Amino acid sequence: MGPPVLEEVNRFVFERSYASGEVFLWEGEKSDVLYFVISGLVKLFATSVEGRELIIRLAYGGDSINDEGIFDDGPNLLSAMTMTPVVLYGLERRHLGEIQNTHPQLNARIMEVLASRQRHLVRLTTEMVFKNVTGRLACFLLESDKLTSAMDKQHRITQQEMASITGTVRELVSRSLRELEMMGSISMERNQIIITNKNQLLKLCEE
User: Fold this and answer.
1) Residues 204/177, Cβ–Cβ less than 8 Å
2) DSSP E strands: which ranges in the chain?
3) Cβ–Cβ contacts within 10 Å for residue 55, how many?
4) pLDDT at 46 over 90
5) Letter string b/e over residues 33-43, b meaning 16 or more CB atoms within 10 A of that residue's CB
């Protein structure tokens, strides 16, 4: 976005801060605010009737949240919960509409974001169907380095959270981590996962 668009956005944007563990969007409810993650880490998740949680994606580093609900004026598809202390910028739907009318070039960027969301969901679906737990975990570990800057030193992704991200249960994540360690792909030091053979993880992820 160019300076004129950013100036227009700054007129309407507001800031919100949340502590770790706070839910600021609930699945099925309605919100007219588009959020941007300025600092920290947010998980976007769906919950089954039985209470099982599936993390669809992790948002950090400028990622937007609630795009779908803003653009189709429907309910939130996912709940949003902070995993660390978080600072968000918010933009109301009506103000976004004004900016789009004034700066129609913004629509191209919006389409890029929505296309990336579609690609993510297709990749997530194919991984769930075609990859075993170890393969899905390998894919996650390859992406996990990007999360380091978004997390404070006190927080690490737990095995339960890994299970929610990869669509399985904690016991299978634990078993897969041991398998990856025996293969020499990772090492476990003080409950911290260290990648020791990235090429091997890439092969598992691509299979």
Assistant:
1) no
2) 14-18, 23-25, 33-39, 42-47, 53-59, 64-65, 79-82, 86-92, 186-189, 192-195
3) 21
4) yes
5) bbbbbebbbbb
What tokens were used for 147? 């999360």
Residue-wise pLDDT for 126-149, tens only, equals 888 889 999 999 999 988 766 665
Tell the CATH topology of 131-206: Arc Repressor Mutant, subunit A (1.10.10)
CA distances from 197 to 138, 174, 179, 188, 194 (A): 11, 19, 13, 13, 9
Provide the residue ranges of all domains of the chain, joining segments of one domain with +: 3-127, 131-206
Angle at 168 between CA 60 and CA 22, to 5 degrees: 40
4 CB burial (10 A radius; 0-12, 13-18, 19+) = exposed
CATH superfamily of 3-127: Jelly Rolls (2.60.120.10)
Q: In this predicted structure, what is the pLDDT of residue 59?
A: 92
Please choose, from the candidates 29, 27, 61, the residue with its C-alpha nearest in 3D space to the C-alpha of residue 44.
27
Among 1, 29, 34, which Cα is nearest to 16's? 34
- pLDDT tens string 138-181: 999 988 766 665 665 556 788 999 999 998 999 999 999 999 99
